[in-house]
Specification:
about 140 residues, Rossmann fold, single chain, alpha/beta
Length: about 140
């Protein structure tokens, strides 16, 4: 399973996702893409198999990913304080990959119907859903 983790700003959510996924799915190939070098570096330190920075890295990574993970802002143009370009949001939204998005209400994007929870509980739920996808033969399974 090729997992693309996308994050912006300081990469805190992406860093935690990479760490949790490396523990839960050691055979998955994790590529971390940050919108800036700080975000990329944070995810790389947690053991991402590959890391890259910027708009083109998101576009290229979204083409070959089986699963894309990150805060919900990664599919909203100009979100995360403008770090998500329209091309990044389109590439992620149009990818054939399944997406697991954390419903984080930041940057003027309010997610209705979602109770406020800690980032830690959101991360645990995301990893649980990703593991379920990896165990589902229809999703291609983890390899």
């Amino acid at each position: 399973m090729k997992i693309l983790v996308v994050d912006a700003q300081g990469g805190g959510i992406g860093r935690q996702l990479v760490a949790a996924l490396k523990t839960a799915l050691p055979d998955a190939e994790i590529t971390a893409v940050g919108t800036n070098s700080m975000a990329t570096g944070a995810m790389r330190k947690e053991g991402a198999d590959h890391a890259a920075t910027g708009e083109n890295a998101v576009i290229v990574g979204a083409r070959s990913a089986d699963l894309i993970v990150g805060p919900i802002g990664i599919v909203i143009a100009d979100s995360l304080y403008g770090e998500i370009t329209p091309a990044m949001a389109a590439a992620i939204g149009q990818s054939r990959a399944k997406r697991v998005l954390l419903p984080v209400s930041h940057c003027d994007n309010i997610i209705a119907g979602v109770t406020e929870g800690s980032v830690a509980s959101l991360l645990q739920d995301a990893v649980k859903k990703i593991c379920a996808l990896c165990e589902d033969p229809a999703s291609g399974g983890c390899r």
